[in-house]
Amino acid sequence: MQLKLQYEPAERESTKQKIQQHEQDREEREAEWARAERLQELHLQEAREQRQHELQVLQLQQGNPTRGANEWKEDAEKLQQLIPLLSGPAFDFYCRLDESTTKTYSSQKKALEDEFDAPGLQQNYAIEFNNRSRGKDETLEGYVD
Fold it and tell me: Rounded to two decimals, what is the model's pTM?
């Protein structure tokens, strides 16, 4: 028994050191994760700013931004008209697209459809709309929204 008591403080110290090393490793991993998240956010912000600049240039180059989609003739013109219309999650998605995807209207359209237009989504919305009824305590404004 005495022999065990002699080694107990050393074992405790070893365990404390292991715990401290584990905590230090965890803190380093968390700091690295936070740096990576900040770097990713900076890259995304930079991409947003670059795309916003591109949008401004495109808008300045366009002769008449009020023309309707039915009047768009060329693929390049469709591309110029599409970009300024994107906002929110669609614009964020556009900012993350690689350059080869953003070069043509058809590739951008396909990427956006693949991301946001799930098969049968329009049909599901139509069914929900047709089956929707006004709730007992629901205002007309709430029902319409």
Answer: 0.38
